[in-house]
Amino acid sequence: MKHLTSRRNLLIAGLVAAGAASGIATTGKAMADDQQLRGTVRFAEGAVLPKGNLRFHFEGLSGSEGAQQVPAVAIVESDGKTDRLSFALPLPEAAETVPVLLLVASLERSDGWLLARGTAKVRPGDPADITLYPVVY
């Protein structure tokens, strides 16, 4: 009796399946990257970022209640030892309808006191570079 499946055919089928699976994984990763905004935050004049929490939000987009500010989408902690931080933020659903977004970054101490603020106009898919400026009370 002759076997319909040979070892060679099983190996080829396995390689084809693995290639298809990796193609799907790559496509899924690319789609996930399209849904994220990446960038860096620096402090004015190249100074070290103070210790605190960086909060990001988008302004000018309509939220679920029609608000003009989408709530904080990410919080990144600054240890007070570096002059720049990298971030990756999920894009809000409303970002698909707006060609340019206004991203706002606020640096706050642990007690909530605002230390610095910066904004950047960004296009979805392009990296964002935000410079924080000290807040004067």
Characterize the structure shown.
- This protein is α+β, with helices and mostly antiparallel strands.
- The protein contains one helix and seven strands, in the order αβββββββ.
- The protein has one helix at residues 7-34; strands spanning 36-43, 52-59, 69-78, 84-90, 101-108, 114-122, 128-134.
- A hairpin with a 5-residue loop joins strand 5 (101-108) and strand 6 (114-122).
- It is globular and about 35 Å long.
Could you give a quick summary of the protein structure above?
20% of the residues lie in helices and 42% in strands. The protein has one helix spanning 7-34; strands at 36-43, 52-59, 69-78, 84-90, 101-108, 114-122, 128-134.
How would you classify the helix and strand content by structural class? alpha+beta
Sheet with the most strands, sense and barrel status: 7 strands, mixed
Kindly report how far apart the N and C termini lie. 89 Å
As a percent range, the share of strand residues is 35-45%
* Rounded radius of gyration (Å): 23 Å
Query: Count of helical segments?
Result: 1
Oligomer: single chain
Give the strand order of the largest sheet, numbering strands 1, 2, ... along the chain. Answer: 3-2-5-6-7-1-4
> What would you call the shape?
globular
Helix and strand string, N-terminal first?
HEEEEEEE
Assign a percent range to the helix content.
Answer: 10-25%
Q: How many strand units?
A: 7
The parts where pLDDT drops under 50 for at least 5 residues are 15-32
Mean pLDDT reading: 75
